[in-house]
Write a structure and sequence with these properties.
GO terms for molecular function: oxidoreductase activity, acting on the CH-OH group of donors, NAD or NADP as acceptor. The chain has a single domain, classed as TIM Barrel (Alpha-Beta Barrel), CATH 3.20.20.100. The chain has 10 helices and 10 strands. Helix content is 40%, strand content 15%. The chain is an alpha/beta fold. It is globular and about 55 Å long. An 8-stranded parallel sheet has the order 3-4-5-6-7-8-9-10.
Length: 279
């Protein structure tokens, strides 16, 4: 974790950047094009989107323009998308993957994820992801928002263990038990909403750590993610914030600092509960 292009090796030996840009709730068109281009221009190599975000076309355009303008190759980039709940099921997932590729204008994805654990469909959906992976249409496969029991159910049926689990994670939801389970099974955890959708900025403990290190509150939390071994993908549409968020590779939190942040956990979600969602 020495710089913005530093990677973690997934269980299948594919290298995934520790840090990336999320584009949830970024409007398709100019907003997402400019944010993705700003990220790539400033050294980001991982971009995370999803079918349901409705901005895959803009992400794809940004990738093409960035490659041309900044001399970045497709092989240097790590592009993630996700199959939405309404498209789950074996055949439906295969079609959804092709639709995402078409919208992105790409020949393959680096990572394809099941967006939510739809109980009666997730196993068939996973089998479709396994087929895509075995056919080398995607470099790595994984899930989002899976709790331990979801993973256990899936792994009973799987021939390939998920390489990544992207979940809500921030100081108020540290996901310690899931983290321990993931380490045991060689599943890389990835944090969405790492800044708690802005909710971290009023926490005095984080403000104090920011002052101590001469950093922003966001940088403190994103550094906490990395030092826990968590891939993290904060969202921003402002180039200055995109640059600022990624400036976390030249300082380190002490074990005491880490303990302060760990102690903030309340198992509090700002997003939906994976055991109680209806969409």
């Amino acid at each position: 974790m020495k710089h913005l292009q530093s990677t973690v090796q997934l269980s299948n030996k594919v290298d995934m950047p520790w840090f990336g840009l999320g584009v949830f709730q970024v409007e398709d068109g100019n907003d997402v094009i400019q944010s993705v281009k700003a990220a790539i221009k400033n050294g980001y190599r991982s971009i995370d989107t999803a079918a349901v975000y409705g901005n895959e076309e803009g992400v794809g355009q940004a990738i093409r323009e960035a490659m041309e303008e900044y001399g970045v190759t497709r092989q240097e980039l790590f592009i993630t998308s996700k199959v939405w709940n309404a498209d789950q099921g074996y055949e439906e997932t295969l079609k959804a993957y092709e639709t995402s590729l078409q919208k992105l204008g790409l020949d393959y994805l680096d990572l394809y994820l099941i967006h939510w654990p739809v109980e009666d469909k997730m196993v068939d959906t996973w089998k479709a992801l396994e087929a895509l992976y075995k056919e080398e249409k995607v470099r790595a496969i994984g899930v989002c928002n899976f709790q331990i029991h979801h993973l256990e159910t899936l792994m009973k049926e799987a021939t390939v263990v998920p390489m990544v689990n992207q979940v809500e994670m921030h100081p108020k939801l540290s996901q310690t038990a899931l983290h321990e389970f993931s380490i045991k099974h060689n599943i890389q955890l990835e944090a969405w909403a790492p800044l708690m959708q802005g909710g971290i900025f009023d926490m005095k403990e984080l403000q104090d750590l920011a002052v101590k290190h001469g950093r922003t509150v966001a940088q403190i939390v994103l550094r906490w993610d990395l030092q826990r071994g968590i891939v993290t993908i904060p969202k921003s549409v402002k180039e200055s914030r995109i640059i600022e968020n990624s400036d976390i590779f030249n300082f380190e939190l002490s074990s005491e600092d880490m303990n302060v942040i760990d102690a903030l956990n309340e198992d509090h979600r700002v997003g939906p509960d994976p055991d109680n969602f209806d969409f």
